[in-house]
Every structure is written in structure tokens, then in C-alpha cells.
Design brief:
Blueprint: H1 9-21, E1 24-28, H2 35-40, E2 47-51, H3 55-69, E3 74-79, H4 88-95, E4 102-108, H5 118-121, E5 126-130, H6 136-139, H7 144-150, H8 154-157, H9 162-183, H10 190-202, E6 206-207, H11 210-216, H12 221-233, E7 237-240, E8 256-259, H13 262-268, H14 274-279, H15 283-298, E9 305-309, E10 315-322, E11 325-331, H16 341-350, E12 354-359, E13 365-368, E14 371-375, H17 379-382
Parallel strand pairs: 1-4, 1-5, 2-3, 3-4, 11-12, 12-14
Antiparallel strand pairs: 6-8, 7-8, 9-10, 10-11, 13-14
Helix pairs in contact: 7-13, 9-10, 9-13, 11-12
Amino acid sequence: MNDSFIQRPRALAATRQALKRSPVVALLGPRQCGKTTLAHQLAGADRHFFDLESTLDRQALSVAGERTLDPLRGLVVLDEVQTMPQLLPVLRVLADRRGTPARFLLLGSASPDLIQGASESLAGRVAFVQLGCFDVTETGAESAAMLWERGGFPRSFLAGNDAESYAWRQDFIETFLSRDAVRFGITLPSEGLRRFWTMLAHLHGGPLNAAELGRALSLDQKTASRYVDILCAAFLLRRLPPWFENTGKRVVKAPKIYLRDSGLLHALLGLRTPVEVRSHPRFGASWEGFALEHAVSLLNAERDAYFWGTHGGAELDLLINRGGAKFGFEFKYTDTPRTTKSMRVAMADLKLKRLFVVHPGTRRFDLDDDIVALPLGDLFKESANL
């Protein structure tokens, strides 16, 4: 199977809209999440494709980048652009041509901060679109359990069986360890990096302590923090910052860490089957991270997502600040969620407009005043009300 069987209309629409308003669009997301497939769906014959990991394409653009690209018209796609940051000044010149004879779609598996000079070289000329792995609106709510177990990378989700899915994820991890990590600036040997990544998997959903991570691998805190930064920039980790507000209570100030794809989390923990996933002590944290990633993506909350916690034990999995109003989210792996003291404390202290308890069931219902049980599959529908 391949990812062409899964339609991604929201991602296509967002990329087309960005190409209309900007001469250069950077479509960014983790490796193997479907960026190339999406690019092939964007245009017909009037399209030119360069793979910057291809020796021939790379040589042509290294020797004469501007001369190669200048005559082209229509859509020009440059795949894995983070491997050739020296092309960005060339694209600035081409983007400024009168009449915009061509538009450039840059595909990258690193954030703008890791694509050296993207913001500076192309300031005012580039739009950024982020593409993640499959979500439940694309695969269908009936496939939510398998999406959680296998993760949303197309080849993992669409594998013929659980064993093939697990094998693909292990291959993905090995490729990152042996090749991509060095390109991103991680000098730790592959076995050491695997231990580092596995430790992060065991910390999934918990506070990040870079000093403790570093000590376990004989790294200083600064180096451990930099490696976390790189994994975040490669769209493999999410570092969720704490929300600070003067409520008269001591709040947790350390960020939380999540692996962004639940399938990779399960592979790093050695969980091969759905039964093993549900039997693991961290399965609740796994589903929390899976649902949280959906909420941040489907509610378009990359820039305003936080968690909140106090030293007294009250906490909120996700806080989204939208238009001056605060919305809270709790993620519970149960078909019959209930209110808790922690939820009521969060409602009162943070003055939440509404608190959603996201669950894997199919029914939406009120739990209390402004506290609503919300099925995971209804998150995108709720985005219009935030």
C-alpha cells in the first residue's frame, strides 16, 4: 500500500493557498510523512522536480543553481532543501523577478530554525506550511485505534500487518540514527543516541530534565539540551512549555516532553502489538500524547499551546490561548470520562472559557458547567468554536 490511498484535502488546500500568496512556500514536516506525495498532487505537466539527495540534481544545482532554475516556469519543487541551504539566496533572486514566472515549493524535514538562513534570506517571500503525519480526520474515526498503535507515518499506518508496521518504524529509527542525526548536528554515536531517544520515550508526557538526561549519557546539560532542540526541530519531539499566571500558587516551570508520533514511541519502547501497547505501564501517557498532538494540529495551535500544573497537584494537559480566551483540554483513555478536583481547580484558577475532556469514544456530552466530554474525532469540528 502507499499514502496515495489517504486523501489529505486540508493540507492540499493550505499549500495551494500559500502558493497563491507567496512566490516561495516551504512545506515542512518529518521525513516520510507524505510531503513528496502531496507535491506530486499539486500540479500537472507544468511542474519541475529536483531531489536534493539525488547526485545528478544536486550537482546541477551546486554548479549552476541560478542558471538551472531561471528558465523554468510553473511549479518548481525542491525536495530535502535543508541539505542545500546555499540555494536560499539564489531563490531570493528568482522570487523577485517581475511577474513571478515560477513558484517554488521547498520540501524539508527540518524546522525553519534548522534550515540555515531561511527566514533571513527569504524574508517577506516565503510562506511556511507544516505537514504532519496522518490524523484521524484523514484516516477516519473508525481507524483511530490503529492510528494510535502504529502512528501516522504513511508506510507504518498502511502496512499490511502489525509486524510490517513495526519493522518499518525500526528501519526509520535506524536511518535517523545512522544518517540524519549527523546531518542535523548530533555527534553522539548511534547507540548512544538510541539510548538518549529511548530515555526520552520513557519520559514521554513527563517533565524534561536535561541535566539528568545528560548525566545518564555522560553529556553536559548544554549538549543534552541542544540534542533535544534538534529532535524537536526535526519534528520528532514536542517540548510543551508551561503556562505562567499569577494565581497565588507555585506552578511547575519545567517543560513537558512528548514524542510526536505514537508509533515511534511504541517502537522505541519495544511494543510490537496492540496488546503490548495496552499492557504497558505508560499506555495512558501514550494515548495522552497521541490525542494532544491531534489537538495542537487540528486546532492550529502550534504557537499558543501550553500545559499548566501546580506543586499542589492540580494540572491541565493542554491550555490553548485563543482571542483572549483560555480553553483547557484533558486527555483520558476511557469511554466514560468524569470531572476531577484538578479540572475544577484549573477552571477556577485559570478562568477557562471551556474545558474539554477528550476521549476515544463516540459521544459528546456535558460533564459540568463548561466542561464537555469530546470524542477525539470531533476535535476538528470544535476548531470553529475556539
